[in-house]
Specification:
By secondary structure, the protein is mainly beta. The chain is built from 6 helices and 56 strands. It has 5 domains: 26-131, lipopolysaccharide transport protein A fold (Sandwich), CATH 2.60.450; 310-398, no CATH class; 399-608, Sandwich (lipopolysaccharide transport protein A fold); 622-716, no CATH class; 728-790, no CATH class. Helices cover 8% and strands 59% of the residues. It has a 45-stranded antiparallel β-sheet that branches. Strand 53 (752-762) and strand 54 (765-767) form a beta hairpin. The chain is rod-shaped and about 180 Å long.
């Protein structure tokens, strides 16, 4: 029985709850007060200002103060009702005071007021509450609570003080402050003192803030702090745009995001996009990178930092610092890209240029424009190239290497490493080595400008040494192919030249020619120069040619020679043979004075004179019939095939032959143009695009005192396209690592130069980077002709 009663009661409560929530109409405060007014026993009219409805009146019309209980005041002219437990009116001033659960409402029910005490001042139409008060705006769906409130019956401007809480109930926005002034006409709420704004996404604190309801904007001033789920901002001033979810901050701005910290004089924070646009002494700090600039734009989602103006950066993992004018940092890939001037410092290196892509993680730097990299006292510059700042390997087009002491080397391309202390230069190499010491080990005296070594060639390798103060000097140089070296008054050409700068020594070989700049030249296969002693040693096929005024040239050969550059003398040793015209002098030794052009022979001197008169036959001795027959036979056998000239780089020109009668015959060859056809038989064809050259080749056959001569007219053709490609292939430089293989090679032709494209193959596949130089094949193609070279 009791259970049935309990269940019935619960059912009744549930039915009433549903009725109250969904069906029962709850009266507004204004409607409620109008109903209660009809039930009041007392109706008192206060002039034309108000009608008071109450349960009880204490006092009469003659009294200044009349009191009421359970009172409702109808401010008839102000369209407002106010109720309270007790009321008090001043009949002279028409001022009204209500206490005890005071409720006020405009008759249109837009505004509701709840408090414990309220004063109505007719003078100024003021409503003043000095107790905890709550104000509701039923149209805007806002409410405000405070310890004190002052407004008018129009509620156009409300001033609330003391623990003020202003809310937009539907939008869940809240503004707290020591004081809030709300203007209903402009829909603006201004908070002063310990301001705190909060919605479902952000929190803002400040000394002062103004909230604009219609554009949904907050202006905050003084120690502004903004916070959301993943970031916070502090500033002197800030404006928060709610619809676009942006905050604009000014003055000592400090942004802290999920992965970065940014400070500046002003900033814009795009909340949705997670972007910060900061200006004025901006500092960005991330996990690995710090950036300062006049302007920084940071995208936390894309992990991109754009920085402009007086920029500086510091990559923390490798202590890499630098400056820039404008740059983009890809934080996800740790990459810096700039197309303007930049500098970079790492370890004892300094880098600068105008266009750079740099991968901080791997150390790879790509130079898209002019750049320079300095280590201590040496600088490598170029038009473009690349470098790895970890391995310290560098490559450059139009490389220029300079040092503070005056060294300078230029080339079409170059690569190397200061850490390995080795560089290679390729194509049109020009260099000057200067400022090194006399001897690294024994004599640290610096060389002067006049002691600099100048050189050029097709390729060069330069090696370095470090001093105790960590400065570096060139210690050794290897220059190859068409080498020209100049030192003081000496010009030296060869196909290979090695300069030991540590000891100031020079080694030259293959086609060596020493030119003393006064019509005297010395050639040899090998030459060794001591630049400190200014002394040289030549070996193998040593020859000196000196032009003598008013006389025939002086041609001297020897096994060895010693060159004294200071004294300008050459000491010749071993089988010294000299020709002046057709006069021959032989000896064991000779000393040649370069300035005086005088040769002094010594040791077993022999001379053969050629007399220029009609008694030549008698001076030459008697003719021998066997010799005549032998010479005739040999001279008739001699021939030069034009076909052999066309198809070979060298033809056979015999120096001796033995006739059928057993007589040996010597053959001496001369050429009208040794530049194109040498007496050795070597042929130098015109470059592709040039013209054919005619050469007269003369042979003189001699046995004893009898001789015969024979001439051959030879045409030196222009080189074929294949021969040009073969010559070009000799200029290709293949890096030992197999990386960054050249895509073309420059070669001279009859009219200027051309760049021949190169296709690289390895294992039957086309490649641009390989694991090494071995096994590579370079394929050169020009106008349908192909040439392959295996490495």
């Amino acid at each position: 029985m009791w259970k049935k009663i309990a269940y019935g009661g619960l059912l009744a409560v549930l039915i009433y709850f549903l009725y109250a929530v969904f069906f029962k109409k709850i009266d507004s405060p204004a409607d409620q007060m109008k109903k209660e007014m009809k039930a009041k026993k007392v109706v008192y009219k206060l002039k034309d200002d108000a009608i008071i409805y109450a349960d009880e009146q204490i006092g009469s019309d003659g009294d200044k103060i009349i009191k009421f209980k359970n009172v409702i005041v109808d401010l008839t002219k102000k369209e407002m009702l106010i109720s309270g437990k007790e009321g008090e009116i001043n009949t002279e001033t028409s001022d009204i005071t209500l206490t005890g659960k005071v409720v006020g409402s405009t008759k249109d029910n837009k505004w509701n007021l709840y408090t414990e005490k309220v004063d109505y001042k007719k003078e100024g139409d003021k409503i003043i509450s000095e107790t905890r008060t709550k104000i509701l705006n039923n149209v805007d769906k806002t409410e405000m609570e405070s310890d004190k409130l002052e407004t008018t019956t129009a509620f156009q401007e409300l001033t609330a003080t003391g623990n003020v809480i202003y809310k937009e109930t539907e939008k869940k926005r809240e503004l707290k402050s020591d004081k809030v002034t709300y203007n209903d006409v402009n829909k603006v709420a201004t908070g002063e003192g310990n301001v705190s704004y909060k919605d479902d996404k952000v929190t803002i604190t400040a000394n002062k803030a103004t909230y604009y309801m219609q554009p949904e904007v907050i202006n905050a001033e003084g120690n502004v702090k903004y916070n959301d789920a993943e970031s916070n901002i502090s500033a002197d001033k800030a404006t928060y745009y709610m619809q676009s979810e942006e905050i604009h901050a000014d003055g000592n701005v400090h942004y802290v995001g999920k992965n970065a910290t940014i400070t500046g004089n002003s900033a814009k924070y795009f909340v949705k996009q997670k972007q910060v646009d900061a200006t004025g002494n901006v500092n960005y700090s991330g996990k690995d990178l710090k950036v300062s600039a006049n302007h920084v734009f940071y995208d936390e989602v894309k992990k991109i930092v754009n920085a402009d103006g007086n920029g500086r950066f510091n990559y923390l993992p490798r202590s890499t610092t630098g400056t820039f004018r404008s740059g983009v940092y890809d934080l996800a890939n740790e990459t810096l890209t700039t197309n303007e001037f930049y500098t970079m410092n790492y370890e004892d290196y300094h880098m600068e240029g105008t266009s750079l892509v740099y991968l901080f993680k791997t150390g790879d730097a790509t130079f898209n424009s002019k750049f320079a990299v300095t280590k201590q006292n040496f600088t490598v510059a170029g038009d473009n190239g690349h470098m790895n700042t970890i391995a310290k390997n560098i490559f450059s087009n139009k490389m220029v290497m300079t040092s503070v002491q005056g060294d300078k080397i230029t080339s079409d391309t170059g690569e190397g490493s200061f850490e390995k202390k080795e560089f290679r230069f390729d194509g049109n190499v020009n260099g000057k080595i200067r400022g090194n010491v006399k001897n690294f080990a024994t004599n640290p005296t610096k060389l002067v400008e006049s002691e600099a070594v100048h050189f050029r060639g097709n390729t060069a390798k330069i090696y370095f040494i470090s001093h105790n103060n960590k400065d570096m000097s060139v210690t050794r140089s290897e220059i190859k192919e068409n080498v020209h070296m100049r030192y003081k008054e000496v010009n030296l050409t060869s196909q290979y030249n090695e300069i030991d700068t540590g000891k100031n020594l020079v080694l030259a070989r293959d086609g060596v020619k020493l030119d003393f700049r006064n019509d005297t030249q010395m050639t040899s296969n090998f030459l060794y120069l001591d630049l400190n002693k200014e002394e040289g040693h030549a070996e193998k096929n040593v020859k000196i040619v000196s032009k003598l005024p008013q006389f025939a040239n002086l041609n001297t050969s020897a096994d060895k020679a010693t060159v004294y550059m200071k004294e300008k003398k050459i000491n010749l040793n071993g089988k010294v043979i000299t020709y002046q015209g057709k006069t021959k002098i032989s000896s064991n030794n000779a000393m040649y004075d370069i300035d005086k052009r005088v040769l002094e022979n010594s040791g077993n001197i022999k001379m053969q004179y050629h007399v220029q008169d009609g008694n030549a036959a008698s001076s030459q001795g008697k003719s021998d019939p066997k010799n005549v027959a032998a010479v005739e036979e040999v001279i008739n056998k001699l021939s030069v095939s034009q076909n052999e000239v066309n198809n070979n780089g060298k033809i056979h020109l015999p120096k001796t032959m033995t006739a059928s009668n057993g007589v040996p015959v010597t053959v001496r060859w001369t050429t009208s143009n040794p530049s194109f056809l040498a007496v050795t038989g070597k042929i130098n064809k015109q470059f592709l695009g040039g013209g054919n050259k005619s050469v007269v080749l003369k042979a003189v056959a001699k046995a004893g005192n009898d001789s015969r001569e024979k001439s051959f007219n030879v045409t030196i053709p222009v080189e074929t396209t294949r021969e040009m490609l073969e010559r070009a292939a000799r200029n290709i430089y293949v890096p030992e690592t197999g990386k960054n293989l050249p895509s073309s090679v420059r070669v001279d032709i009859g009219k200027g130069t051309i760049d021949v494209p190169i296709v690289w193959m390895s294992g039957g596949n086309r490649v641009q980077n390989a694991t090494g130089a071995k096994g590579l094949t370079a394929i050169l193609n020009y106008k349908g002709t192909e040439y392959r070279k295996q490495y």
